[in-house]
Amino acid sequence: MKKIVLIGRSEAGKTTLTQALRGEKIHYHKTQYVNNFDVIVDTPGEYAQTKGLGHALALYTYESDVVGLLVSAIEPYCLFPPCITCMANREVVGIVTKINHPDANVKRAASWLELAGCKKIFFVDSKAQEGVSDILEYLREDGDVMPWERETMETQ
Question: Which of 20, 21, 83, 124 has a Cα-to-Cα distance from 132 of 20 to 30 A?
Answer without folding.
Answer: 83
